[in-house]
Design brief:
This protein is an alpha+beta fold. The chain contains 16 helices and 26 strands. The strands form seven sheets. Strands 1, 2, 3, 4, 5, 8, 9, 10 and 13 form a nine-stranded mixed β-sheet that branches. Helix 2 runs antiparallel to helix 5, helix 10 packs across helix 12 and helix 12 packs antiparallel against helix 15 (591-605). The termini are far apart.
């Protein structure tokens, strides 16, 4: 006799729980769940080989009067007996096998799909050549999810029903399963792309699955129907294979190769860099590759675990810059594969350590930069050469060096744990406490400033004995400015949209957006005013405008960097000061930019004030 009364959930509470869990799932997650189930079903067979189809349920389309278009997932895995289906499908947490690698089974196919398909999910499964059907749906009147009951030939109610082999998919011989999603109502087309899901209406299922699965297991073939609606009125049902003969070249089943297959086909070079508790898989993609709407063929950063991909970033959100890939991120793929100390979380959206803590992105970034592949470094240098700005970098530095004293930057920063003793006239103002007396006898006290981020500053000159401890700070406060644009293929379409520039602190580098209207408008005004002076005038004007704006960006970043780490400047505040929005606002200043630009243009075009007035 048990000494515990297990917690139960009343039917209405269970319905609310299922709906809430379903809302936590992304609208396309069910694709992963059903395909993953099919992969595991095939791997349980003796052959461990098989086929998975993501297609329309064509027998339903052909035989039913309303011609429903319903997405289905078919495999020739081990199949399920009717008793197994009844048990697995009518229990919230029964998905997955006891031999699963995971102690928890995640949200599963039922949870990710049932709340989005209250009209029902139809399971048809065969074992030993005999098929049965189970139908799970939402009963509106009773406000519960459950299995439909069928009356057998003896008048008994069962949760399953035997089905004819006349509708069995051709890939299924003795065993296998087909799952069909009915949607919110029986008339709904569930092959259509849900709102907010990435990809085109022709290839969204293929796009998601190919990006989600890094590598397809050996011996398993996955095919996905693309452009199902194209020439559908001309489609002819083939009774032998219980599917249609493809009515058009575009309306067909395409083989899924996984993201690794996509990257391998488009690579120039690739390799693996060992990290302390992970592997970094990297690819340099062919810059001249042709893109398509079926595959994710862009520079990207993400995580690989158990042949699935997580936390993929690309474009303006790409993490590549944190790994040291600044210029070539559009053509470099970085995928980290953590070791067995990491696992998928229950939502199947990310990877965590087994103790539940998050992934150590910063440590991985540092380790990769310390072991930066020579091939990527060379590629970075090649791309960087295409960026504009090197020609005027020295001119900008020359002008700014004359202004160094006005930046009032300290030579050293106080730090009670510093390894240098410095004199008071060499100390940066406004941070820390002065230590006096014999340094050997002083009790160590924590200084008042925030020393998590050392300030990038100037002038590391004299080291001398003193009672004040400190650390030497970086000498050059001015970043390098390089210009990029869409036309030169040095800027991604999603990068710096309506923004003037982006700063990369670790490289002390500013990428300026040549396409930003704030630059373009000023340049056009000057070309209108001075562009006819001689044939080289437009080019000279462009150079001057970029120099002056580049100088403005240098000064803004240098000024912001001297604030980093001060007592009243948190790291968050400093990040705002060097953000894309802050840099864009900073170059909105016009008076100094216009005055300095006009003076420089006139000097280089040899235009006198009198000539300008006449013009």
């Amino acid at each position: 006799m048990s000494d515990i009364d297990p917690i139960t959930v009343n039917p209405s509470g269970l319905t609310a729980l299922i709906n809430n869990l379903g809302r936590d799932c992304l609208p396309d997650q069910y694709l992963r769940e059903f395909v993953k189930n099919s992969i595991e079903a095939i791997q349980r067979t003796e052959e461990k080989k098989g086929t998975i189809l993501v297609d329309c349920n064509w027998p339903d389309w052909y035989y039913l009067d309303n011609k429903p278009i319903k997405i289905s997932f078919t495999d020739n895995g081990d199949g399920m007996s009717p008793q197994q289906m009844e048990k697995l499908l009518n229990q919230l947490s029964a998905s997955g096998s006891k031999a699963s690698k995971h102690k928890h089974y995640g949200v599963g196919a039922k949870i990710s799909a049932i709340s989005r398909n209250p009209a029902g999910i139809k399971y048809e499964s065969w074992q030993n050549g005999k098929g049965f059907m189970v139908y799970i749906y939402f009963d509106v009147k009773k406000d519960v999810y459950g299995l439909m009951r069928f009356t057998d030939e003896n008048g008994k109610l069962n949760a399953y029903k035997e089905i004819t082999n006349d509708i069995k998919p051709s890939i299924i011989k003795d065993h296998g399963t087909r799952v069909t999603l009915m949607g919110e109502k029986t008339s709904e087309d569930t092959m259509q792309r849900p709102e907010s899901v990435k990809g085109t209406k022709d290839f969204w299922q293929f796009y998601y699955l190919n990006q989600r699965f890094f590598e397809i297991p050996k011996g398993i073939e996955i095919k996905v129907r693309c452009a199902y609606y194209y020439d559908l009125d001309k489609a002819i049902f083939n009774g032998k294979k219980n599917s249609i003969n493809d009515p058009a070249k575009s309306n067909c089943l395409r083989v899924l190769f996984g993201q690794k297959g996509t990257l391998v086909r488009h690579k120039k070079k690739s390799g693996i860099t060992e990290l302390s508790d992970a592997k970094m898989h990297w690819w340099i993609l062919n810059p001249d590759r042709k893109s398509n709407s079926r595959e994710f063929i862009v520079g990207q950063t993400g995580v690989v675990k158990e042949d699935e991909l997580f936390e993929i970033t690309s474009g303006s959100s790409n993490r590549a810059s944190h790994f040291g890939v600044i210029f070539s991120y559009r053509d470099v793929a970085l995928l980290i594969e953590p070791n067995d100390n990491y696992e998928q979380d229950t939502t199947r959206r990310t990877i965590v350590k087994r103790d539940g803590s998050p992934m150590p992105w910063e440590r991985w970034q540092d380790e990769f930069k310390e072991n930066f592949p020579e091939e990527i470094k060379k590629f970075e240098d090649e791309v960087a050469k295409k960026l504009g700005g090197d020609d005027y970098a020295e001119k900008i530095k020359e002008r700014l060096n004359k202004l160094l004293k006005y930046f009032k930057l300290g030579k050293y920063k106080r730090n009670t744990s510093g390894d240098l003793y410095i004199s008071e006239d060499e100390v940066e103002a406004l941070t820390g406490n002065i230590r006096t007396g014999d340094p050997k006898n002083q009790e160590r006290k924590t200084a008042g400033g925030n020393y998590a981020g050392k300030i990038r500053e100037m002038l590391s000159i004299y080291e001398k004995e003193s009672n004040t401890r400190g650390v030497r700070v970086q000498a050059d406060p001015f970043p390098k400015v390089l210009w990029c644009s869409l036309s030169e293929k040095t800027r991604d379409e999603g990068e710096m949209i309506d923004r003037a520039a982006k700063y990369f602190p670790e490289e002390n580098l500013v990428k300026a957006n040549r396409d930003f209207s704030g630059y373009e408008d000023v340049k056009k005004e000057f070309i209108t005013e001075f562009g006819k002076t001689n044939e080289n005038a437009p080019k000279i004007i462009t150079q001057v405008v970029e120099e002056i704006f580049g100088q403005q960006l240098c000064e803004v970043v240098a000024g912001a960097n001297q604030l980093k780490g001060r007592t009243h400047w948190t790291n968050e505040a400093w990040e705002k000061a060097i953000s894309e929005e802050a840099l864009t606002t900073a170059v909105g200043v016009r008076s100094n930019i216009v005055i300095n630009s006009i003076r420089e243009i006139k000097n280089r075009l040899r235009i006198t004030s009198k000539e300008r007035d006449v013009a």
